[in-house]
Amino acid sequence: QPASGPLGELENAFDLVLKNPANTNVQSWGGKLLALWEAALPCRIDPDTLEYVGRETFDGLLPDGALTVASGIGPEVDASLGLGVAFTAHPREDRKRGRVVGWSWAAPLVGSSLSVTVHEWDAASGALLASTPTALPSAIAPHDFALTDSWYIFALNAMQLNLFPYVLGLTGPVGALRTTGEGAVLVLVPRPGGAAAGREPLTVRTEDPYFAIHHAVACEEPRGGGGGSDGETIRLYTAAWPVVGAGPFLGDWGGDVPLYDDGKINPTLLLETTLRLHEGGASLERSYVAGGACIDHPHVDPRFEGDGRVRYIFMSWCNAEGESGSPPVGYCRFDRLTGKTQVWRAPPRTFCEEVVVIPRPAEAGRASAGGEEADVADVWLAGMMYSADVGRS
């Protein structure tokens, strides 16, 4: 909050407790409706009245503390110090297995290794089915993650946290973040019950200074039929800024909010990353798809989350040039099979919010020739739009 006392900005010194706006995502599973923000616990809300019920710890699974920090000594010490964890704003629904997958994290008190635990719940009952603790080589939690049948996938952006001005109250947490201009890092964590179970996590370092924001989907495409996860190809689709140099986080905005008129906002493009796994590592290729258009918030039919049969990716559409970011003015659909993109444009002076992909009820004829369900875009798309002419959504 703004400092107003005699010490000026130093009035905020050592006030490190963050307000939880719970404004990034809403998910429902196990009979609970949860409002999510990535740096705090979920907020449970009443599905009928939308009234706040309380912080959700999943029956004590997630420690509730004032600070999202891990001492590195043990959970008992963390609890005695009032330390807790945060929960991702973007859990994933694995409809093929009837599960919801999400992860909790805590920043290191010392060092640069993020403590992460990935949890899987039964989507209907909310029962905990699996927990996988791991560590990510970063002091800053990623915004999103992806999953396949065998892997959890994290993309770590090249960032650093300058704690000193934040601790002294001279800036907020976002103002303490800087991008380094170095390459992104991908971490693959074996998923329980998958073909990679029992293996060590795989870290793939790149020289590409892109910035991953939201993942549309990841999927495995077996290569050569050799069995197991070796020889496997993984494709990851990500909304990303193509190049981010060293400097303040969101420095190209030009102010507290994006200044679009200058045409200097980093565009968000749909990045296809291809990982070819081999003994002891992986090779990596990347390319931008969807015609190089500026997009955001890509999603797939949730029936094909993490599934190699996924074909269509739906997203907000900003502009065809892909040279600068701009407010979304339509929606588009990318076909992984043909590489073609279909665009729907909203009426003039109408701006489009994030798209929601709603599966239509199962019908005969959607199965492929092999008898398996096929992704034929049998969905509804829903999204809020704002008309500047009438001044309302």
What does this structure look like?
- The strands form eight sheets. Strands 5, 6, 7, 8, 9 and 10 form a six-stranded mixed beta sheet that branches. This protein has a four-stranded antiparallel beta sheet with strand order 1-2-3-4, with no helix packed on it. It has a four-stranded antiparallel beta sheet with strand order 11-12-15-16, with no helix packed on it.
- The model is unreliable at 225-229 (pLDDT under 50).
- The chain contains two helices and 29 strands.
- With 393 residues, the protein is an all-beta fold.
- It is globular, with a radius of gyration of 21 Å.
- It has helices at 75-80, 163-167; strands at residues 25-29, 32-36, 43-45, 52-55, 69-70, 86-87, 92-94, 99-108, 114-122, 128-136, 146-147, 151-156, 159-161, 177-180, 185-190, 202-205, 211-222, 232-241, 246-248, 269-278, 281-289, 294-299, 312-319, 330-335, 341-345, 350-352, 356-359, 379-382, 385-387.
- A hairpin with a 4-residue loop joins strand 7 and strand 8.
- Tally the beta strands: 29
Mean pLDDT across every amino acid position: 88
| Helix residue percentage | under 10%
Estimated share of beta-strand residues: 35-45%
Structural class: mainly beta
Anisotropy-based shape:
globular
Low-pLDDT parts are 225-229
Largest sheet, if any? 6 strands, mixed
What is the CA–CA distance across the termini?
A: 30 Å
The rounded Rg comes to 21 Å
Output the number of helix runs.
2
What's the SSE blueprint?
Layout: E1 25-29, E2 32-36, E3 43-45, E4 52-55, E5 69-70, H1 75-80, E6 86-87, E7 92-94, E8 99-108, E9 114-122, E10 128-136, E11 146-147, E12 151-156, E13 159-161, H2 163-167, E14 177-180, E15 185-190, E16 202-205, E17 211-222, E18 232-241, E19 246-248, E20 269-278, E21 281-289, E22 294-299, E23 312-319, E24 330-335, E25 341-345, E26 350-352, E27 356-359, E28 379-382, E29 385-387
